[in-house]
Amino acid sequence: MGRILVGILVGSSLLSQVVLAITPISQSYQTSDTLAEGSIVSLKKDSTDEVVAATSKNADNIFGVVINSDNSLLRISSKNGNQVQVASEGTMSVLASDINGTIHRGDHITASPISGIGMRANGNVRIVGIAQGDMVVQDKQTIKGDNGKDEQITLGEVPVLINVSYFFKQPERTLIPTAIQNIANS
């Protein structure tokens, strides 16, 4: 859960208080997965009301982030089956990893190969939003990489401005004029 430090000047002393980041709207979706708060979710294939943990394989269907229902000013829900609240806007704390490198403020966040966990977007891909701060490290784990070797990764949380969209990585150098490249990207 994201927290914002608010300072209030009273006389000559500064009072501070922690305020929870709240999303304006969330909606409940059915799921068969066990999803932690902060998990990135995708719509299940051929469904409009069921979500699954997002991975690199289903990143084209990224939909939002799982939140606690108390963190929403307006929530739309039904009482059918196992459900989670999903925010598709607002600033939320998102579970993340350093698989594509350390996450810093301004990095675009997409789904990683680990279910529900985000990573820095390095190519043209659908993203859940933009990091509003650096990743806060919580754990280190060893996983099997694509090459079959053990790799150590860092897991943590990062505050993300949720805005599901497509990220088009701009080439560092190109012989193609910018206007033509932008048309090709579209």
Overview of this protein structure:
Strand 10 (108-111) and strand 11 form a beta hairpin. With 186 residues, this protein is mainly beta. The chain is 4% helix and 52% strand. The two termini are 35 Å apart. The protein has a 6-stranded mixed β-sheet with strand order 5-4-6-8-3-7, with no helix packed on it. Strands 9, 10, 11, 12, 13 and 14 form a 6-stranded antiparallel β-sheet that branches. A two-stranded antiparallel sheet has the order 1-2. The protein is globular and about 55 Å long. The protein has one helix at 178-185, and strands at residues 3-10, 13-20, 23-30, 40-43, 51-53, 62-67, 72-76, 83-87, 90-97, 108-111, 118-120, 125-131, 136-144, 150-167. It has 1 helix and 14 strands, in the order ββββββββββββββα.
Brief summary of the model shown:
With 186 residues, the chain is mostly beta strands. Helices cover 4% and strands 52% of the residues.
SSE map:
Blueprint: E1 3-10, E2 13-20, E3 23-30, E4 40-43, E5 51-53, E6 62-67, E7 72-76, E8 83-87, E9 90-97, E10 108-111, E11 118-120, E12 125-131, E13 136-144, E14 150-167, H1 178-185
Parallel strand pairs: 3-7
Antiparallel strand pairs: 1-2, 3-8, 4-5, 4-6, 6-8, 9-14, 10-11, 10-12, 12-14, 13-14
Task: Give the strand content.
Answer: over 45%
- How many beta-strand runs? 14
Task: State the low-pLDDT regions, or none.
Answer: 1-20
Structural class: mainly beta
Distance from first to last alpha carbon: 35 Å
Q: How do the strands line up in the largest sheet?
A: 5-4-6-8-3-7
**Helical fraction:** under 10%
Radius of gyration: 18 Å
Instruction: Using the alpha-carbon principal axes, give the shape.
Output: globular
Sheet of most strands: 6 strands, mixed
Number of helices: 1
Could you give the order of the helices and strands?
Answer: EEEEEEEEEEEEEEH
> What is the arithmetic mean of pLDDT?
81
Assembly type:
single chain
